[in-house]
Amino acid sequence: MSAATDAMFAPPVNRAMKVLDRSFFQRTIPTSAARIFNPKDISRCRNDLDKSRDALKNRLMPIRPDPDEQRAQKGGKCLLLRPEVIHNDRNTWSPKLQELESNGTVGVIPYQLHLDYDYFTYSEITSAIIPPPEKKNDDELPTGFTLAGHIAHLNLRERYWPYKYLIATVLADKNPIVRTVINKLDNVGTENAYRTFQYEVLHGPDDMNVSVHEQGCTFNFDFSKVYWNTRLHTEHERLCSIFNEGEAICDVMAGVGPFAIPAGKKKCFVYANDLNPDSHASLVSNIKTNKVGDYVRPFNTDGHDFIRSATADLLRASHSVPIFPKPKKISRSDPNYAKPEPIRTLIQPRVFAHYVMNLPASAITFLPSFIALYSNIPDLPASEIRTLFAPHTDVQMPMVHVYCFSTKSDDNVAESKSICEEISRQLGCEITPETPEVRIWDVRDVAPKKRMFCASFRLPEEVAFREV
User: Fold this and answer.
1) Which positions does UniProt annotate for S-adenosyl-L-methionine binding (predicted)?
2) Residue 139 confidence class, pLDDT cut points 50, 70, 90
3) 302 in a known ligand binding site
4) Percent helix, strand and coil across the chain, each to the nearest 5
5) DSSP reduced 3-state for 10
6) DSSP string spanning 101-133?
């Protein structure tokens, strides 16, 4: 559509509105329509007039009841045309429209197109209510939000505080899944060790209990008491895709289980830990809900200690899970019913294949816990542990996936180098972007000059078996 047409379809403006008045957003646009005389011609006319660019192209349904009530009652339909097509000026019609009119397939008639609040989008309504930025570099109108179940989570800049209730109400109106809109009042990870935050309810009930579905799993939790970021769903999927059935995974900062539960679904053996008691409680519940109790063990302790204690526990533990064939539709009350025999058995490994450390504000500072990881385990000599990694076993040193924040650039070369330098400092061992199996993955933007990364590297043997 042209700029003039765009303006015709924009909502009316009221910068003085303090309480949302939905009835204010009414607009009638004088346009034209192609009256289709035979219902059998509707599909053909629509295709022809789309190709000839006579038909109105926007999010409106183009096929409408005929504006004549008697015709409409008999099933009469018309096709909306662009405002530039004037019903009584054939010079504004395409040759195709002229042809259809001449052969009696359609008639071109005036049409009063009425738009109301339901037609306009969230950004259109808020732009009509909130004054634009005074300066070019000022914060733009907030259009993004995080969705967790029925909760929309905003992080409004100060400029928008006077309009926060209007923004929240429109957002809820335009997103049927949203019942509650909240605004964050502090910074996650700085005010609270559990990465929870203070919030205010801008719209709807103060109900923070949500249910989220991701990777075929269900996560239930109190959004006000645990950390959850829906925008990380692709990262959860990416990392979980690396895990293989039967591997052992150590999730050091597991939260409510976005890595641990899907890994358990893949039949990985997972030790999942979180320091936050509420996260741990949700994790325990989610393990049960998703029926991964044979594979996922929950813990509630300090991450520094957990890296070492989980490693030692796995070395000593003995656990296996029988895998049964898919059940046939046979009643268990049938006298001929016999419990099927397992087709194979998964045996829990003695060493972790992956350590996941999703606490980007400080996870790198947990890396010293890997120093002497295998050399100071009571009753298990390092020499015995080394045999687990002998060439004939195909068992490799574990991969470590540590999340962190860094600055932002176009190519992330400087950031990758800086992250590796900090990892090297924490481990006392040189790790560079060129080191084999090192990957610095760009996860997402966090702020204009801040990005979240995942640094993946194979734990050096000299670190894990270092004598201290």
Assistant:
1) 236, 274-275, 302-303, 358
2) low
3) yes
4) 30, 25, 45
5) coil
6) HHTTSEEEEEEEEEE-TTTS-HHHHHHHHSPPP
Are residues 34 and 78 in contact, defined by beta-carbon separation less than 8 angstroms? yes
Mean pLDDT within 52-70 = 94
Residue 189: predicted pLDDT: 46
Contact by Cβ (8 Å): 220, 289: yes
pLDDT digits (tens, 9 = 90+) for 424-442: 999 999 999 999 999 999 9
Nearest 10 degrees: CA dihedral of 30, 65, 74, 45? 90
Residue 315 contacts by C-beta under 8 Å, 6 or more apart in sequence?
A: 350, 351, 377, 380, 385
State the residue for tokens 């050399």.
375
Whether residue 236 is annotated as binding a ligand: the answer is yes
Residue 133 CB contacts under 8 Å (≥ 6 apart), including other chains: 139, 140, 159
CB atoms within 10 A of CB 183: 22
Tokens 């992330």 — which residue? 412
114 marked as part of a ligand binding site: no
Mean pLDDT of 269-292: 98
pLDDT at position 4 is 66
Which amino acid makes up residue 198?
Q
* Residue in this structure with the two tokens 């962190």, named with its chain if needed: 404
**Cα separation, 259 vs 272, whole angstroms:** 9
- For residues 274 and 255, the answer to whether their CB atoms sit within 8 Å is yes
What is the bridge-based pairing of β-strands 106-115 and 27-36?
antiparallel
Confidence tier at 318 by pLDDT (50, 70, 90):
very high
313 is in an annotated binding site: no
Number of neighbouring beta carbons within 10 Å of residue 410: 5
Which domains occur in the chain, in start order? 27-115 (no CATH), 122-207 (3.30.300.110), 231-464 (3.40.50.150)
